Amino acid sequence: MSASDARVAVSVLHWGERADTLRCLASVAGSARIPDWLFVLDNGTGVLTPADVMAVAPGATLLRSGENLGFAGGHNLVIRRALEAGATQVLLLNNDAVVEPGCLDALLRVAAAPGVAAVGAKVLAAGDPGKLWLAWGRVTWRAALVERVGRGAPDGPPFDRVQEVEWVPGCAMLLAREALATVGLLDERFFAYHEDVDWCASARARGFRILFAPEARVQHRGEGSLAGRGPANPARYLSARNSVLFARKHGGLLTRLRLAASVGASLPLEALRARRRGGGDVVALLWRGYRDGLLGRDVPLSELGLR
Question: Which residues make Cβ contacts (< 8 Å) with residue 203, sequence separation at least 6?
């Protein structure tokens, strides 16, 4: 399908700073190509109003969830709505991201290639748009599970061509309807963090391609919904837990052993760093995350302040 024939929906979740969400919506509404549908889901906060949304993005639709469904559950709610409406492509967008005017067109041009499941934007650091927040990622099977390629690097030639990659970040990820029908929606067990890595791995296992689109540019603050939580940030728990979930789902014996060895080696180093910084809760949070992933436990949302 050509870029001009695509019918595209944009999904933005509100959980965190209201100003971030409104900036994000305004950037989409000001795009060179206006999406066919722009959905914003108030993900359990109850604070976003129709007047807020209409002021910055008059064509947008405000949806509400009675509780925080996380990145995966929240976007899944919107994806279902978008597919029912007839969307051929769905762009997942973090609320602390701002798209540059030509971003959507650039994503759709790359998505028109055969066999493409997902296309990722070039994600620039909001505080310094001359540097990358992230281009694409690789699975390393070390304690952090992944390498974020390009993080902190100057924007330039190494990141200026379309290429096939292992995974692209969910903060600005365009998903194809055909792939969603085959792969399924985001795995809601992940709640938040690594659900994008998981979905891309599942798509590649089914023969689909994941592409990086350098002309699609997004500025992203990063961890906007969890900013200001300090070293013992719920993101540390979620990343640890979901690394183990990913390994249980996609890893073989050797890759699982590699992850386990790396985790075992990293925790003492984390303990030393935490002692120097006065953040002793970090190691306990990481350990609980790894344990809960191994045991398949649900995320303790209330304890982590995510309800």
Answer: 117, 118, 179, 182, 183, 210
Q: Summarize pLDDT for 35-60 with one digit per residue, the tens.
A: 999 999 999 999 999 999 999 999 99
pTM for this prediction: 0.95
Q: Where do the structural domains in the chain lie, given as residue ranges?
A: 3-220, 234-295
Whether the CB-CB separation of 107 and 213 falls below 8 Å is answered with yes
Token duo for residue 232 = 């013992």
Query: Which CATH architecture group holds 3-220?
Result: Alpha-Beta Complex (3.90)
Nearest in space to 195 (alpha carbons), one of 16, 71, 92, 87: 71
